[in-house]
Design goal:
Layout lengths: L2 H17 L7 H4 L5 E7 L6 H16 L6 E4 L11 H10 L6 E7 L2 E2 L3 E4 L5 E3 L1 H11 L5 E6 L4 H4 L9 E5 L18 H9 L6 H16 L11 E3 L10
Parallel strand pairs: 1-2, 1-3, 3-7, 7-8
Antiparallel strand pairs: 4-5, 5-6, 8-9
Helix pairs in contact: 4-5, 7-8
Length: 245
């Protein structure tokens, strides 16, 4: 092969590899210390499914070894600091922000279109993308951040420009104009939460988890007369193929 041909092949391969760069792990970014600031949040106290998912995710994360004591928050908690409100969620994340290098937040509840994530408090609150943006800017800054948001219309978060950053990955249970399913008293978990807990340990990276959940949801919702929930994923460039805790 002529030298000019070899140069062309090398140049072509370099171009192909560079075009796939958003799917290559940012090794320097991923290599920061493995100390996770973790919140697991159930926003409703009317059914058990949300609490069940928070408890199970706590068990899964603890068993994997990287997260030793995730902070679990419940709408029905007797501990005021552990009761899920806009104020206490922001407060709890702030408690470990200086001693941790990464952020992991799982939230499960109902949701309202264009309003956000429902919190069953005395006056009823919604945790909005604006609340999330402020909290992450203050406590997580440029740290690797994973957001798992399970509620109807939760794509409202992944659609929000201020949350679509290089260091953030967002998986949601539904598009911003769609409901999610399984919020019944007869269900142990919602559909999306069930797919999350069933596939978390089967997934090495955030990309794999997104793909596995989507496959699972499609199977669960197949044949339903309702519109597909259409779970959404945004994975910032530095979070591509980021290894799960």
């Amino acid at each position: 092969m002529k030298r000019s041909s070899i140069f062309f092949v090398i140049s072509f391969l370099s171009l192909v590899l560079s075009s796939c760069g958003s799917y290559v792990v940012d090794s320097e970014f991923a290599a920061v210390n493995n100390r996770w600031n973790t919140l697991l949040i159930s926003g409703d106290n009317q059914i058990e499914a949300f609490d069940n998912a928070v408890s199970r995710m706590g068990e899964i994360l603890t068993s994997r070894g990287n997260i030793t004591s995730p902070k679990k928050m419940f709408a029905r908690s007797g501990d005021q600091d552990a009761r899920a409100t806009v104020t206490t969620i922001q407060y709890q994340l702030s408690q470990n922000s200086e001693n941790t290098d990464k952020c992991f937040i799982f939230m499960t509840s109902h949701g309202a279109k264009n309003r956000g994530f429902y919190l069953h408090t005395q006056r009823t609150e919604f945790f909005t993308p604006e609340h999330m943006t402020y909290m992450l800017n203050e406590q997580c800054k440029d740290k690797p951040t994973i957001l798992l948001i399970s509620s109807c219309y939760s794509g409202f978060f992944s659609d929000t420009k201020s949350l679509r950053k290089d260091n953030i990955a967002i998986l949601t249970a539904a598009a911003s104009d769609r409901t999610s399913f399984g919020c019944g008293v007869e269900n142990k978990y919602t559909y999306w939460d069930s797919c999350l807990v069933d596939n978390y340990n089967k997934s090495k990276t955030i990309n794999e988890l997104s793909e596995n959940i989507l496959t699972c949801i499609k199977a669960k919702e197949k044949g339903s007369s309702s519109n597909f929930s259409n779970p959404q994923t945004f994975i910032g460039s530095k979070m591509q193929n980021f290894e799960l805790p």
